[in-house]
Design goal:
alpha/beta; eight-stranded mixed sheet; seven-stranded antiparallel sheet; elongated; disordered C terminus; translocase; transmembrane helix; ATPase_P-type_domA; Cation-translocating P-type ATPase
Length: 780
C-alpha cells in the first residue's frame, strides 16, 4: 500500500470535518421546490370560480335568503378535494429520495466511525462493502469491487471499480470492498441531479377538469355584467325590492356554473381508486385513471416490467457424468465460498443448496472484465464459473450454449481442473466442462396476452431500456411484442434530434440514458401522443415525470414509487388493463351524464341574456335550481357513474357533452318563453306561471335523464322511475319553500300538451342524429 493510500485511509481530522461543514460541504442538501400548504390552500380557495360563488352567497346572506344558500355545500366539498389532492401530491414529491437514509462506515482520525449519510463531508474516506449502497459520489482509493448501476443507468452489466474509478451515488456494490473518497456532496451528486429535475410539482392533467374550467372561465366573463344588469333591472325598473332582485339575479348566475359536475367527477374517480386498491393497484393521483383511458402510447421498461425483475435458473445441463453425483456439493461449496453477490449469483444460490463440503484454498472474485470467477478447493481442485467462451475454446462449447443464447438467456458454464491451481488471478488452468446453467429474468405471466390486448386497443408500445438492445429485443420477442425486431442502440445517437427521430422509426430502444428516455417521451408528446410510462429505477425518474401518466413497480426504487401516478403493488404490469377499464368507465359514464348538467348552464345563460334585454325577471330562484341539482343531476348521475363501461373513449368530452345538452336546453328556453307569453295573454297569476315553467323545466330535464339511461336495464329503469316520481313529489311536498304551487285545471292541460310536443321533438331529433351518424360511419 502506498504512503498516499495510507494517509488517505487515516481520513479527515475532526477539525477538517468541522471546517468543511462550515463551508457548506456537507451531504445534507435538501431542496424544496414544492408549494407550501398555505400556498396550496390559497390557490384552491382564491379562484375566480370560487369568488363568484361566494360573492353570490354573500349577497344572498345579506338579504336574508338563507334557504337559497344550499349550493355552498358543493363548493366547499370541491375545494376540500382539490386541497387534499394537491397536498397529497406535494407530500409524495417531498419524500423523493434516491440514496437510502442508512449509516455508513467512515474513517476519521484514523478510526472507523458509523455516521448517517447526511453527516458525510467532502473528502471523507468511506468503507463500502458488497451489498451496500453508495451514499455519495466517490473515487476509489483502495480495493476492488463491482458496482451495479442499473437503477441509475438501466444497464444491468456489473462494472468493475478499482483505484481511481468513480462510484456514483445510488449504485450498489455487488462484490468486493473498497475505500473511497467523497468527491461530490449534496446537490452535486449524480443521483440528486437526476431527481432534482423530477422534484417539480406536476399539475393535474385531466380533460374533464380542464373542460369544466373552460366553461367556468367563459361564464365568468358574462356573469358579472349580467348580474349587474339583472339586479339593476329588478331593483330600479321592476321595483322588486332588494331581496327579490338579489334572489332572481343569483339564480340566473348560479345556473351557469357547473358545480355538481365537478363533484361527480371527483366521486367517480374516487370509486375507481377504491376498486383498483382491491386489485393491488395504488392510485396516488386519481386523475391518472382518466389520463390512462386516453393513452395511445405506452413506454415499457424491460427489467421488472415485461420481466419479473428476478433472475432465475431455468435449465441445468450436466456435462460430465463423472461428477453427476457430486455436482450439487461442488456447486453448493462454490456458492458458500464465493463473495460475489450479484443478481446472477443470487439466482444460482436460490436454485442450489449451499454446502460447506469442500474447503477453499484460494478465491478469485467474479470480474466483469474477465467474465469469470474461480475457487481452488483442497479435495477437488479448481472450479471456475463464467461465460462459456471465456472458459473454453469455441470447438469445445456444447450446442446448448448457442441455442440458449439465441433465445436470449444468460448462459454460464462451470468447469473443473482436478489438478489445477490458481497461480495468478488472470490465467486459468485447463478445464473440463462440468455444468451449463441457463439463467433468465422470466417473462411475466400473461405478458403476451396483455401486450396483444393493448395493441388491439390501439395502444402503440415502445420498450425503452438501458440494457443491451439485442437482449431487450429478444425479451420483447419472447413476450410477443409486435415489432420486436425493430431495435436501436441509442448510445450511438449523439444529438437530441437523432434521438427524437429514432422514436418514429423503432420499437425497441437499448442503451438509453435517463435524459434520452425523457427526450423520447417529450417527442411523443410533441406529436400529440398521450404517453404512459412504466419504470422501476432511478434511470426512469425523468421520463416518468415527463409522461402524461407514470406507473411504478412496487419492487423498484423508492423514488419511482413516490413520484408516480400509480404504483403496481404486485409489480405486475399485466394489471394495466384493469386501470384502463376503470379510466374508461369514469370518462364514458361522466360524458354520458354530463349533458344533464350542462342543460342548466346553457339555458341559464340564454335566459339571462333574454331577461337582460327585456327587463323581465329570471323565472327561477336558487332553491329551485338546487332541487334540480340534487334530484335530477346528482341522484341518477351518481349511480350511473358506478356502471361498467369498457368501450374505447371516443371524441372530446366538452364538445360531446355540450352537443348532447343543447337540444334540451333550447327546448327549456322555448318552453319558458311560450309559457310567459301564454300567461301574459291569459292573465295567469305569477304563481301559476312560475309553477307551469318549473314543472316543464323538470320534465325536460328528466328527458335528458332518460336519454342518458339508454340502453335500458333494470337499474336504469329504476333510476328513471324514481327520478321522475321523486322530484315531482318533492316539488309538491316542499312547494312553500320552492315558492311554487300546484298545476290547476287550466295549467295541467297546457303542461300535458307541451310535454307531449317536447317528447316528440326530442325523439325526432334523436332519430335524425342517429341516421346521420350511421351515414357518416358507412361513408368511412
Amino acid at each position: 500500500m502506498s504512503s498516499n493510500k495510507f494517509d488517505l485511509k487515516k481520513g479527515l481530522t475532526a477539525q477538517e470535518v468541522e471546517s468543511r461543514k462550515q463551508q457548506g460541504l456537507q451531504n445534507d442538501y435538501e431542496e424544496n421546490v414544492a408549494k407550501s400548504t398555505k400556498d396550496i390552500i390559497y390557490d384552491n380557495v382564491m379562484t375566480l370560480f370560487n369568488f363568484l360563488n361566494f360573492a353570490i352567497a354573500v349577497f344572498l346572506f345579506a338579504v336574508g335568503a338563507y334557504s337559497n344558500l344550499a349550493f355552498l355545500a358543493i363548493i366547499l366539498i370541491n375545494m376540500g378535494m382539490g386541497i387534499y389532492q394537491e397536498i397529497h401530491a406535494r407530500n409524495l414529491v417531498q419524500k423523493l429520495s434516491i440514496v437510502a437514509k442508512e449509516d455508513v462506515i467512515v474513517i476519521r482520525d484514523g478510526q472507523e466511525q458509523s455516521i448517517g449519510t447526511d453527516e458525510l463531508v467532502m473528502d471523507d474516506i468511506v468503507l463500502i462493502s458488497a451489498g451496500e449502497q453508495v451514499p455519495s459520489d466517490m473515487k476509489v482509493v483502495d480495493g476492488k469491487a463491482e458496482a451495479n448501476e442499473a437503477l441509475l443507468t438501466g444497464e444491468s452489466d456489473l462494472i468493475e471499480k478499482t483505484e481511481g474509478d468513480v462510484l456514483l451515488s445510488g449504485s450498489f456494490l455487488s462484490s468486493g470492498q473498497v475505500y473511497a473518497q467523497v468527491i461530490h456532496v449534496g446537490a452535486d451528486n449524480y443521483a440528486v441531479k437526476i431527481t432534482s429535475e423530477a422534484k417539480v410539482h406536476k399539475p393535474i392533467r385531466s380533460e374533464l377538469i380542464r373542460s369544466i374550467r373552460k366553461v367556468s372561465k367563459f361564464t365568468s366573463y358574462v356573469i358579472i355584467p349580467l348580474g349587474v344588469i339583472l339586479f339593476i333591472e329588478g331593483y330600479f325598473i321592476r321595483d322588486s325590492g332588494m331581496k327579490g332582485s338579489v334572489v332572481a339575479s343569483a339564480a340566473a348566475l348560479l345556473g351557469m356554473l357547473p358545480k355538481g359536475l365537478v363533484l361527480l367527477i371527483s366521486i367517480a374517480l374516487t370509486t375507481g381508486v377504491i376498486k383498483l386498491a382491491k386489485k393491488r393497484i395504488l392510485v396516488q393521483d386519481m386523475y391518472a385513471m382518466e389520463t390512462l383511458a386516453h393513452v395511445d402510447t405506452l413506454c415499457l421498461d424491460k427489467t421488472g416490467t415485461i420481466t419479473e425483475g428476478k433472475m432465475k435458473v431455468q435449465h441445468v445441463h450436466e456435462l460430465n457424468p463423472k461428477f453427476n453425483e457430486s455436482l450439487p456439493l461442488i456447486i453448493g461449496s462454490y456458492m458458500a465460498e464465493s463473495t460475489d453477490n450479484n443478481i446472477t449469483m443470487q439466482a444460482i444460490r436460490e436454485h442450489f443448496e449451499i454446502s460447506n463440503r469442500y474447503g477453499a484454498v484460494k478465491t478469485v472474485p467474479f470480474s466483469s472484465e474477465k467474465k469469470w470467477g474461480a475457487i481452488q478447493f483442497n479435495e477437488i481442485g479448481t472450479v471456475v464459473l463464467g461465460a462459456p467462451e471465456k472458459l473454453f475454446s469455441e470447438d469445445r462449447l456444447p450446442k446448448e450454449v448457442f441455442s440458449a443464447q439465441e433465445e436470449g438467456y444468460r448462459v454460464l458454464m462451470m468447469g473443473i481442473a482436478e489438478q489445477g491451481i490458481l497461480d495468478d488471478e488472470d490465467t486459468l488452468p485447463y478445464l473440463e466442462p462440468l455444468v451449463l446453467l441457463e439463467i433468465d429474468d422470466p417473462i411475466r405471466q400473461n405478458a403476451n396476452e396483455t401486450l396483444a390486448y393493448l395493441r388491439e386497443e390501439g395502444i402503440d408500445i415502445k420498450v425503452i431500456s438501458g440494457d443491451n438492445p439485442v437482449t431487450v429485443s429478444n425479451i420483447a420477442r419472447r413476450a410477443g411484442l409486435f415489432g420486436y425486431e425493430s431495435y436501436v442502440d441509442l448510445s450511438t445517437k449523439e444529438t437530441e434530434e437523432e434521438v427524437r427521430q429514432a422514436v418514429h422509426e423503432y420499437t425497441v430502444f437499448g442503451r438509453v440514458s435517463p435524459q434520452q428516455k425523457r427526450t423520447l417521451v417529450r417527442e411523443l408528446k410533441d406529436n400529440k401522443r398521450v404517453v404512459a410510462m412504466t419504470g422501476d429505477g432511478v434511470n426512469d425518474v425523468l421520463a416518468l415525470r415527463e409522461a402524461d401518466c407514470s406507473i411504478a413497480m412496487a419492487e423498484g426504487d423508492g423514488a419511482t414509487r413516490q413520484i408516480s401516478n400509480l404504483v403496481l403493488l404486485d409489480s405486475d404490469f399485466t394489471t394495466l388493463p384493469d386501470v384502463l377499464f376503470e379510466g374508461r368507465r369514469v370518462v364514458n359514464n361522466v360524458t354520458r351524464v354530463a349533458s344533464v348538467f350542462f342543460i342548466k348552464t346553457i339555458y341559464s345563460l340564454i335566459l339571462s341574456v333574454i331577461c337582460g334585454l327585456t327587463a323581465i325577471a329570471f323565472p327561477f330562484i336558487p332553491i329551485q335550481i338546487t332541487l334540480i341539482d340534487l334530484a335530477i343531476e346528482g341522484y341518477p348521475a351518481f349511480f350511473l357513474s358506478f356502471e361498467s363501461d369498457k368501450r374505447k373513449v371516443r371524441g372530446k368530452f366538452l364538445p360531446t357533452a355540450l352537443r348532447n345538452a343543447s337540444v334540451n336546453a333550447v327546448l327549456v328556453v322555448i318552453n319558458i318563453v311560450t309559457v310567459y307569453l301564454i300567461g301574459e295573454s291569459q292573465g295567469f297569476s305569477h304563481l301559476d306561471t312560475t309553477t307551469l315553467m318549473y314543472y316543464l323545466l323538470i320534465g325536460i330535464s328528466c328527458m335528458a335523464v332518460v336519454r342518458a339511461c339508454l340502453p335500458l336495464n333494470p337499474l336504469r329503469i329504476f333510476l328513471i322511475v324514481t327520478t321522475i316520481g321523486g322530484i315531482y313529489v318533492a316539488a309538491m311536498l316542499f312547494h312553500h319553500i320552492l315558492e311554487v304551487g300546484f298545476l290547476t285545471s287550466t295549467t295541467l292541460p297546457i303542461f300535458a300538451v307541451m310535454m307531449a310536443i317536447n317528447i316528440v321533438v326530442r325523439v325526432l331529433i334523436g332519430m335524425y342524429k342517429m341516421k346521420k351518424a350511421n351515414v357518416t360511419v358507412n361513408e368511412l
